[in-house]
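Working notes for the structural subgroup meeting. M.R. asked for a predicted model of this chain before we commit to crystallization trials. I am recording the input and output together here so anyone reviewing the notebook later can reproduce the run.

Input as submitted:
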Amino acid sequence: MAQLQQMQVKVRGMSATKFVKNRVEILAGLTRLRQICDTPALYMDDFTGTSGKLEQLIELLNQAAENNRHVLIFFTVY
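Returned structure, recorded in token form:
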């Protein structure tokens, strides 16, 4: 949540010209937010909690295994 608030404050204070000049920085911030949504452990070294997305994936894999279904998973290493 702190990362999101930090990005919101930064973007709100920008003029249109500054916004265009800082596109790469804004994109990097959005990428960090996406990583945090995937699992906070990708961004926060000391994170010890769980990830809702990973829990959902495990549940789907268990269901697929129970029903003899094949699964193809694409992932990106950050």
